[in-house]
Structures are given as C-alpha cells and as structure tokens.
Amino acid sequence: MPDPYQRVAVFDLDGTLVRGDSFARFLRLLLLRRPIRAVISLLSAIILVPLFLISRTRRRAVAGFLWLATIGVPPHRFEALAEEFALAHAAEPRRIAITLDRLRSHQRAGDRVIIVTGCADPLAGAVCRALGLAGVEVIAARLEHSRRAHRVAEGCLGADKVRRLEQAGVVPPIEYAYSDSAVDLPLLRAAKHPVLVGPSPRTRQRVRAALGTDPAVLPLD
What we know:
The chain contains 9 helices and 7 strands; from the N terminus they run βαααααβαββαβαβαβ. With about 220 residues, the protein is α/β, with parallel strands linked by helices. The protein has a single domain, classed as HAD superfamily/HAD-like (Rossmann fold, 3-Layer(aba) Sandwich), CATH 3.40.50. A 7-stranded mixed sheet has the order 4-3-2-1-5-6-7, with helices on both faces. β5, α8 and β6 form a beta-alpha-beta unit. α2 runs antiparallel to α3 and α4 packs parallel to α6. The longest helix is centred in the N-terminal third of the chain and has 18 residues. The chain is globular and about 50 Å long.
C-alpha cells in the first residue's frame, strides 16, 4: 500500500519525457503499413481530419482513426507492434534529458513517481520501458478490443488525469506536476509545484493566467 505521507511527482509523457505524440505516430504507422489500409485511411481523412480539428468532435475522429488502424489486428499483435515502435520512438534523439533527469532525482529522493498520459496502453507502458523508467507507475488511456478492432474504453486527458490519480489513491494537492501543455491545467492546478517543460510563450501565458502565478520552467535548450 502506498505511503500516504510519501511525496508524489506526476509527469506527462508526450512532450515532457519524449518528443512528439507517441500514439498519433503509432497510429500513423499502423494506418500506412499496408497499401489497402493506407488508401482507405487517406480517403477517410477527408472526413476525419476536420472532425479532429473541432474539440467537441475530436473523440469521434480519434475513434475513427483507431478503428481504421486496428481493424483485423488482434491484441497480441497490437502489443508486439507497440513494443517494436516504442524502441525506435524512445531512442536517444527523442528523449527529453532534462525531464528524465528530474524524474530520476525524484526516484532517488524516495518520491512516488507516476506518469499520467493521454497516450494509450499498451503503447504508453512500452515507451516508458524503452526510456528505461523502471519502478514508475503508468496511468494511461485504456483500450479494449471489440468487433475485431480497438476502441478507447477510458480516457486520460485534462481533468481525467486528476480523476485517474484519485482512483489510484492520490488525493490532491500533489507535490509536483510536470507537463508541456495547457491541456494539463487541471493537473497543474492540483500541484503545489507545477512545472512547465519547454513551453511555448502562448502556453506559458495561458498557464500563468489560469494559475495566477508564473510556474517553474524546464527549458529544452
């Protein structure tokens, strides 16, 4: 059972520990790896891309791309492809060293380290293993296999991250939260020490306005 007095440090994954959108890049690989699937995906993109650009229909677009990418791919094959992709995706040029170093410093200090990400399992777990992050907890979007394809069964974006942390027994306020995005404002608000990783000026301004204070920043360069 976790120590209720143990400090908790929460990290986003994409843009915080590894560069790029892990799940989007993985889906693109799945969509383009077979010619017939690639053709159908490109035709479907005419409808799905505009839906993705609108916040209220984005989930439908993601569901559509996920179905196209995984139809006919059984769970064991999906997991094997995720492991294979993660090794390349988390290779040295894509790793964000400054945040990985900070994560390991929290581990050495005895903190409970949790990665909370909108990336879906099993890919999120595979990326963390490829990054060499032993001993960390991973909370990610959960997929389920249904009707010969995968679908999102439980999300992990925005306020869902705080809810999923509470389900894991982490009651706000948490000690530290690291993210690169204003999408994680609910998580950053729940932290005593919010930290932005390589934020754009616009992101930093939005977070500052929402928090009422200037958060700490870890620069990428």
